[in-house]
Amino acid sequence: MNMSQPAGDRDAGLIQLIDPSGHRTPNDDFDPWVTDVDAEALRGLYTDMVAIRRIDQEGTALQRQGELALWPPLLGQEAAQIGSGRALEDDDFIFPSYRETGLAYCRDIDAEDTLRVWRGNAYSGWDPFGKNMATPQIIIGAQTLHAAGYAMGIKYDGGSQAAITYFGDGATSQGDVNEAMVFAASYQAPVVFFCQNNHWAISEPVELQSNTHIADRPIGFGIPSLRVDGNDVLACLAATRIALDRARTGNGPTFIEAVTYRMGPHTTADDPTRYRDANELDLWAAKDPIDRLEKHLAGLGLDVEELRAGAAEVADAVAEKLRKAIIGLQDPQPMEVFENVYSQPHTTLDRQREHYELYQQQFAAAGSATEGGAR
Question: Are strands 200-201 and 204-205 parallel, antiparallel or unpaired?
Answer without folding.
Answer: antiparallel
